[in-house]
Each structure stands twice: as structure tokens, then as C-alpha cells.
From TrEMBL:
Species the sequence originates in: Microctonus aethiopoides
Pfam families according to UniProt: Meckelin
Transmembrane segments: 230-251, 271-294, 487-509
InterPro entries the record matches: Meckelin
Keywords, alphabetical: Membrane, Transmembrane, Transmembrane helix
Domain of life of the native organism: Eukaryota
GO annotations of cellular component type: MKS complex
Region (Disordered): 155-175
Listed name of the protein: Meckelin
GO BP of this protein: cilium assembly
Length: 538
């Protein structure tokens, strides 16, 4: 199927313009962090000298100063809402695909009766078995084997004819920007015969889909997982403010007092409340962060456990967070198969523990399983070509997989997923000449600035990653954004005149609301991106 070069170019240009606009908005929104820091510094610089004096010589801040702090807080909250919407939208547009490396196993059908003796289907089974005019089961098995051999010979002849007609001398002169029929893999052809797949099912045991569904559900589980617990954060903050009595530090009294002054007629000052709220909230959050860092380092790392699960399940994950940037988790099992009984799985893990087998890394002899991927334009073109051919749609920019989700034609959906699976497998195994990749480490300056300077027009580059960079596509890697949003929400409600309990309740409600929306939306998006039925996602 031909591709409109003009449409592809115009759509890519439009995407680049959109990316520039989004990055500009993000740059402007990052300025709010500086505003927040300045607000906290100003309030603490006003609060500390006044509360520490024993002789009154520093007056209270005037109303004009309070109004400036309130206006800046409202502006910061509005900017934070926009940032959260941008984060949710970015997570929504992330493309992800689960690559199942499990191969079908060859089986021989001996026509063994597997029907239950307590069912009435046994009679129909026996009737079907002996209704071939005296033909023995061995003869029927031989016919099946012969037909399979004929099918394999025919498929080999077809592949040889295609390979013999290809002009290898002109490969170097072809354009790499768009895939042509000469070097396009055969799985891109949408006119795939369904009868060929049916013939294979007669002789091979199909690969179970439960491993893919299980890994997909685990991915959904860590999508909204965070380094801190918002319930503990709010409860500890309220405990310190209300029970310990730190809230009385916000009274307009020129010294620190930890006694109950509920009967005092002295009013609380807003700037002092602001300083106490930020200090308490940040203190509790810092304690949580420190404890979780120790727990993650010495006890349990949920991201590493997920990577190990991918290795046991024999499933890799390819994530495209941007048009030409993404992440790859190599989960290909070193044992070949993972669909085994429990004893075999335990023996495989023991052999890995005792270094009696190969390493799990993408490169033979290495252990690196996580990569930051900078894909080439050729890779992206191949990827889009498969999707365009599947949908008979020339417009790449407006492509979404909602069409496949709404279609009742499961055959078309399965063919598209099979082509994507074959494309990723062939690419990772270096089977595609014009869509290849190299593995390398980032330079010192690239690690320091967290940016890639290498241009990838021809080959994709897999940068070795040891920092779990794929967490940028989940809440786990955006903890700073979420934590500052909760802090600003707390201060925003305080600005509107709420007490400590109302501020805590509103912050908890907003955090849980965002988490709930993300779970519902990401379940739908995961089904759309991976072409897995959402009924199998929990």
C-alpha cells in the first residue's frame, strides 16, 4: 500500500510545532516553583525574627504583604493545575507494547479421548472418531504430518521467490525515510491469509496470553504508585499541628509557646500560618522520603521487582513516551520458555542465582535490562506504516487505536497486534537491515544534563540505564510534581480561609481524585495502546 509522502511530512511538521508549544508552556510553568520557594522564604524570614524576639521591636506584617502572598499562592495553584493536566495528558499519549518472546511448542495429536466420561459428548466423539470408513488414527495423523510438510515447503518456495526477485544492489541507494516494498518485512502486508494461521494451529500449541495479561495488570498497579503515602502525610501533618500544638506558633505572640491558648483572644496571623504550614508539611514529607529511600535501597525495590517479573514471564516492554524517545525493558528469558510448572521455574531461578546459565541482559554476557531509547526516523516510519496499513488511514497525526477498540472484527485487531509484535521482535533481534540499533552508554555530560546529544537518522540508540528512567511514564518518577501540587493545594485552601482540618481534607480529596482519574483513564489507554481487551485488565 502506497503512503502519501506529503501527508507524512506535513503531519511530522505539525507534531514538531505542537511539541515546541508544549515545551514552551512547560518552561513557563516551571517558573512557578521559583515563586513558591520565594513565598516560603519570605514568610519564614518574616516569621522567625518576630517570633524570636523577647522585646517587641519588630512589628507585624501589614495587610498589603498578606495580599501579595495570597495572590501569588492563587497564581501558583492555577499554574499547578495546568501542570497536572499536562502530566496526565502526557501519560495518556505514551505508547506501550508488550513483547512476548514465548514460542509455540510443536505437538503431535494422537487423537486421545480427553472428554469426560460423565458427559454426553463422549458418544458424539466416538461417532466422529470411527466415521471415516475404517481409516485408522495413525493414517490420519500421517496425513496431517504430510499436509504440514507440504505447507512448509510451499511457504519456503514463496519466501525464496520473494528473496530471489529482490534487487540487493540497489539497497544502498534507497531512501531510509520511508519503507519500500523491496525491504519491508512480509508482516507489513495487510493481506495475510487467515487459512495459513489455521494450518499452523493444527500442529503447534498456541502461546498462552495470561502472562501478558498478568504483566499488563502489574504495570497498571505501579502506574499510580508513589514514593510517599498521602494518607500518612496528611495524618502526620494534622497530628503535629493539632495534637502537638504547633498551630499555636502561628499566634501573633513574640515568642514560641507550646501551650493551649484556645481561650486567647489573640488572632492567628496569615503569614505565620503560611510559614508553619509549609514547614510542617515539608518536614513530614522529608521524613517519608528519607525512610522510603532506605527501604528501597536495602529492603525492597518495586521497580526492580517488576523488571524481574518481566524476565520470569519472558515479556519485554517497549515504551515510546515521545515521537523519537522512549524506554525499553528487556524481559527475554534466558531459559527460552517461561510457560512451565512451578518446580521448573524455581529451578530456573536457582540456576540464575548460582550463575549456571546466561545473563539476562540484551547484549550477550551483560546484565543490563533497562534502556533509554532514541529511535530513528526509519523506525518511527515503519511503526506508523504498520498502523496506517492496518487502519487504511493515511493521516498519521489523527491516528488513534479507538478504531480497533470499537470494531467488532477481532481478526483485524489480532492481525495488527501480530504485525507489531513481529516488527519489535525482528528489530530487537537485528533482523531488519534498515531498522537496526546500537547499544552504548551515555557520556558524562549526557548523564549530567540528562539529555542525549547524538542524532539518530539511520540507527536507533539504546542507552544503558541504571536509574529506572522509565519511571518518568508513571507517578513514581513524578513525585516532585505531585508533592508540590499537594503542598500548593494545602496552602491554597488556607489562603481561602480554611482551617487546618479543611486544608488537610481538601488536599487528600484532590490527591485521591487525581489518582482515581488516572487509574480509570490509564486502564482504558493501556487496552488501546497494547491492543489487549480491557476485560482482562483489573
Amino acid at each position: 500500500m502506497e503512503i502519501n509522502h506529503t501527508n507524512l511530512y506535513s503531519n511530522s511538521t505539525n507534531n514538531e510545532e505542537k511539541i515546541k508549544q508544549v515545551e514552551l508552556i512547560k518552561t513557563v510553568l516551571h517558573l512557578k516553583h521559583g515563586v513558591i520557594v520565594e513565598e516560603m522564604q519570605i514568610t519564614h524570614l518574616i516569621y522567625a525574627p518576630y517570633s524570636g524576639q523577647t522585646v517587641l521591636h519588630i512589628p507585624l506584617p501589614n495587610e498589603r504583604s498578606e495580599n501579595i502572598i495570597k495572590i501569588l499562592t492563587i497564581i501558583s495553584f492555577a499554574a499547578k493545575i495546568i501542570e497536572m493536566i499536562s502530566l496526565m495528558r502526557h501519560h495518556r499519549n505514551v505508547n506501550i507494547f508488550f513483547i512476548d518472546w514465548e514460542q509455540p511448542r510443536k505437538i503431535i495429536d494422537y487423537n486421545i479421548n480427553r472428554e469426560s466420561p460423565h458427559t454426553s459428548l463422549k458418544k458424539s466423539y466416538l461417532k466422529e472418531k470411527y466415521s471415516y470408513g475404517g481409516c485408522k488414527s495413525s493414517e490420519r495423523t500421517g496425513e496431517k504430518i504430510q499436509s504440514r510438510k507440504n505447507y512448509i515447503n510451499k511457504s519456503q518456495l514463496r519466501s525464496n521467490r520473494r528473496s530471489s526477485t529482490a534487487d540487493d544492489d540497489d539497497d544502498d541507494n534507497r531512501e531510509c525515510s520511508l519503507p519500500s516494498k523491496e525491504f519491508c518485512p512480509s508482516f507489513i502486508d495487510i493481506n495475510t491469509s487467515s487459512s495459513d494461521c489455521d494450518n499452523l494451529k493444527l500442529n503447534y500449541c498456541s502461546v498462552s496470553a495470561w502472562r501478558t495479561c498478568f504483566v499488563a495488570n502489574q504495570w497498571l498497579g505501579i502506574k499510580t504508585r508513589r514514593k510517599t503515602n498521602i494518607i500518612f502525610q496528611i495524618a502526620a501533618t494534622l497530628f503535629i499541628l493539632e495534637i502537638v500544638g504547633v498551630k499555636f506558633w502561628a499566634l501573633a505572640i513574640p515568642k514560641w509557646i507550646l501551650v493551649n491558648q484556645s481561650n486567647s483572644k489573640t488572632l492567628e496571623n496569615f503569614i505565620f500560618q503560611y510559614a508553619i504550614a509549609t514547614g510542617t508539611f515539608i518536614f513530614v514529607y522529608s521524613v517519608q522520603w528519607f525512610l522510603y529511600t532506605l527501604y528501597e535501597t536495602y529492603i525492597k525495590n518495586c521497580l526492580q521487582e517488576f523488571v524481574d517479573l518481566c524476565s520470569v514471564a519472558n515479556i519485554s516492554i517497549f515504551i515510546l513516551s515521545h515521537n523519537y524517545l522512549g524506554y525499553y525493558i528487556h524481559g527475554r528469558s534466558v531459559h527460552g520458555y517461561s510457560d512451565k510448572d512451578l518446580e521448573s521455574l524455581i529451578n530456573d531461578l536457582e540456576s540464575e542465582k548460582n550463575n549456571q546459565c546466561a545473563h539476562r541482559g540484551l547484549v550477550p554476557g551483560t546484565c543490563e535490562q533497562m534502556f533509554v531509547v532514541s529511535v530513528s526516523k526509519t523506525f518511527r516510519t515503519f511503526y506508523d506504516t504498520i498502523l496506517i496499513n492496518a487502519l487504511n488511514n493515511r493521516n498519521v497525526g489523527k491516528f488513534t487505536r479507538r478504531f480497533l477498540l470499537n470494531k467488532n472484527n477481532w481478526n483485524e485487531r489480532w492481525k495488527t497486534r501480530s504485525k507489531l509484535h513481529e516488527f519489535f521482535c525482528s528489530h530487537l533481534d537485528h533482523c531488519l537491515k534498515h531498522v537496526d540499533y546500537t547499544v552504548q552508554e551515555k557520556r558524562f555530560l549526557e548523564k549530567l544534563c540528562d539529555i542525549e546529544f547524538t542524532n539518530t537518522p539511520e540507527k536507533s540508540i539504546f542507552y544503558i540505564d541504571k536509574n529506572y528512567s522509565f519511571n518518568q511514564t508513571i507517578f513514581y518518577g513524578n513525585e516532585w510534581t505531585l508533592a508540590t501540587f499537594e503542598l500548593i493545594t494545602f496552602l491554597f485552601v488556607l489562603t481561602l480561609g480554611g482551617n487546618w482540618i479543611i486544608c488537610a481534607g481538601a488536599t487528600l480529596l484532590m490527591s485521591k481524585l487525581i489518582s482515581c482519574i488516572a487509574k480509570i483513564d490509564q486502564k482504558k489507554q493501556l487496552a488501546a495502546k497494547t491492543l489487549i481487551d480491557k476485560r482482562f485488565l483489573i
